[in-house]
Amino acid sequence: MTTRRGGFTLDVDLEVAPGEVVAVLGPNGSGKSTLLGTLAGLYAPEDARVTLGARVLTDSAAGVSVPAHRRRVGMLSQQALLFPHLTARDNVAFGPRCAGRRRHEALAAARELLADVGVAELEGRRPAELSGGQAQRVAIARALAVEPDLLLLDEPFAALDVDAAPAVRSVLRRLVRRTGQTTLLVTHDVVDAVVLADRLIVLAEGRIVEQGPTAEVLARPRSAFAARIAGLDLVTGTASDGGLTTEEGTPVYGRPSEEVAPGEPAVAVFPPSAVAVHRKPPEGSPRNVVPVRLAALEPQGEVVRLRAAASPGGPPWVEGLAADVTPAAVAELGVEPGDDLWFAVKATEVAVHPRRR
Ligand SMILES: Nc1ncnc2c1ncn2[C@@H]1O[C@H](COP(=O)(O)OP(=O)(O)OP(=O)(O)O)[C@@H](O)[C@H]1O
């Protein structure tokens, strides 16, 4: 598709498999909202062909453009945008009613969905009587109530406070997985992509500059933007009681940030600034301590990023882990590439999230 807005041109070619969740990341103004708007039928593209299953939604060459409300494309944005005069239940039942469902059927379906998103007891409240997180849960229920063929999520957690966002993300993850909902998710948060998406695409200046399985793009970023968002330490494994267990069986201790059941695929996430670097294994406090071989020293503004490789006999999953330390600490440690070191990170600094298979 090619869509112009003012002097900006979006030019992308994208295919999403049924049931797939694709995350779209990119700097401000890279065209993420323009992409969603074009799929939703909000903008008239200059030259595009958009198909959903067997249906043609847009074919500019043939003069076809299905209006937004007939696309069976659901949209959820930062703000819940509920009808202010309707109760939570009636907000969710509205779409099915418009699609011709009987009133009692639509209300029953709405109640079930409100229970699914964890706000069954709020069904009689109006939007003004809901918190941001509660309203967004209702908005998720409303978006799914019409059983859209494609769900578009435009920064659905951005307006929520940091405490509410992971719980709402969990709810969305569970429902999207259960219904096999085909989804395109625009986000600024790489953790959203890890938790929800099978695949990640990176937009820059209206074009796709990178795409692939989420973990792969983050492990081997090619664009400057992907490198920057990949600036978190990620360790994948299987959730356990106190954190996760890597594929090789190493325990990584952390705190579950949201609903993640033992035995499920999980990812441990921590900032490189939380990693302490030692010459000898540190003693005492309960934390994660792992041997690494120093691969590189990368200056990063105020700090130096120590990049790890596996040490002989050590676990392979440390490959690529980063530790940010001050230049003074680097001088004091006297480290050089090839040195054998220990990376340590406190369990309280490690967030454990569920991960898409
Ligand atoms: N109404 C408009 N008229 C003209 N140009 C517009 C309009 N809306 C957006 N643009 C331009 O289109 C480009 C893409 O905007 P878009 O909102 O799709 O980016 P985005 O990636 O979603 O950004 P953000 O992360 O800031 O939400 C921007 O350069 C913007 O200046």
From TrEMBL:
<dbReference type="InterPro" id="IPR004606">
    <property type="entry name" value="Mop_domain"/>
</dbReference>
<feature type="domain" description="Mop">
    <location>
        <begin position="283"/>
        <end position="354"/>
    </location>
</feature>
<dbReference type="InterPro" id="IPR008995">
    <property type="entry name" value="Mo/tungstate-bd_C_term_dom"/>
</dbReference>
<keyword id="KW-0813">Transport</keyword>
<protein>
    <submittedName>
        <fullName>ATP-binding cassette domain-containing protein</fullName>
    </submittedName>
</protein>
<dbReference type="InterPro" id="IPR050093">
    <property type="entry name" value="ABC_SmlMolc_Importer"/>
</dbReference>
<dbReference type="InterPro" id="IPR017871">
    <property type="entry name" value="ABC_transporter-like_CS"/>
</dbReference>
<dbReference type="InterPro" id="IPR005116">
    <property type="entry name" value="Transp-assoc_OB_typ1"/>
</dbReference>
<feature type="domain" description="ABC transporter">
    <location>
        <begin position="1"/>
        <end position="230"/>
    </location>
</feature>
<keyword id="KW-0067">ATP-binding</keyword>
<dbReference type="InterPro" id="IPR003593">
    <property type="entry name" value="AAA+_ATPase"/>
</dbReference>
<dbReference type="InterPro" id="IPR027417">
    <property type="entry name" value="P-loop_NTPase"/>
</dbReference>
<keyword id="KW-0547">Nucleotide-binding</keyword>
<dbReference type="GO" id="GO:0005524">
    <property type="term" value="F:ATP binding"/>
</dbReference>
<dbReference type="Pfam" id="PF03459">
    <property type="entry name" value="TOBE"/>
</dbReference>
<keyword id="KW-0500">Molybdenum</keyword>
<dbReference type="Pfam" id="PF00005">
    <property type="entry name" value="ABC_tran"/>
</dbReference>
<dbReference type="InterPro" id="IPR003439">
    <property type="entry name" value="ABC_transporter-like_ATP-bd"/>
</dbReference>
